[in-house]
Amino acid sequence: MTTLSCSTAAGGAPRPAPEPSAPDHVRMGVGARLTLHPATDDFVPVILSALSAARATAPGVTVRTDDVSTLLRGSEQDVATFVAAGLEHAARITSTGHVVATLALSRGCPGEVGCDLPAGELVEVVPVHLAPAGLHASAHWALYPLGTADAMGPILAAIDTAQRRGTYGGAENFATRLDGDLADVLATVVDTWTGVGREVAHVAAHATVSVGSPSRRGDR
Q: Are 207 and 139 in contact, with CB atoms under 8 Å apart?
């Protein structure tokens, strides 16, 4: 069977493989990076309040914030719940109602964890459940199946999924556009990422999500 190569820690030392008894999201190396950009001069209280609200909503997520972004570690459902709660809260308390978030998702090795996991043991993840936010969101979304000769196959399948869900907004330069309720847009990003992970050992996704933009689509 094909196995995943072991990643390395800082300094080049191999990372130990997770224990077989570890939760699936730990064995699979699931993680995310989230950055919030509220469109207001007084942005610090908005970001701190949003992170606090997200922690309360998804207490199972391990959170570490630095001067660049916030690291999230937890199950796919918990991470999705955290991001949705944080972005919705930020949009509702920002004076302009306009918030942009950048979200990077990663699942598999090499990455944050090292492992020697047979490709046949990839974990299937059920679709996430996110309550409707009642906020319209738009996103530029990109999906990266890594370590596979057929990257376009999974990407096209993910776009088909977005079309069936009604969130597909068309092709853009270097990205695919998504439109819809914030919950539906985020669920599309997360579920296509985990869907590719059923067949591809290491998959990443990136999305720039905008809520409450004063610009209309196509404005320049």
A: yes
Task: Say which residue the tokens 């847009």 belong to.
Answer: 185
Backbone torsions φ then ψ of 23, nearest 5 degrees? -55, 150
* Radius of gyration for the chain, computed over Cα atoms and rounded to the nearest angstrom: 17
Please say whether the dihedral angle defined by the alpha carbons of residues 19, 20, 23 and 25, taken in this order, is positive or negative: positive
**pLDDT one-digit tens code per residue, 126-163:** 999 999 999 999 999 999 998 888 899 999 999 999 99
Please report the pLDDT score of residue 13 as a whole number: 46
Q: CA angle, corner 133, sides to 130 and 136, nearest 5?
A: 120
d(CA 43, CA 127): 33
155 near 195, Cβ under 8 Å? Answer: no
Q: What's the mean per-residue pLDDT of the chain?
A: 87
Whether omega before 110 lies within 30 degrees of 0, making that bond cis, reads yes
Q: How far is C-alpha 16 from the geometric centre of its chain's CA atoms?
A: 25
For the chain, the residue count is 220
Dihedral pair phi/psi, residue 142, rounded to 5°: -140, 145
Give the number of other Cβ atoms within 10 Å of residue 176's Cβ.
Answer: 22
The backbone torsions φ and ψ at residue 99, rounded to the nearest 5 degrees and listed phi first, read -135, 140
Amino acid 201: pLDDT:
82
Regions of the chain with pLDDT less than 50: 1-14, 220
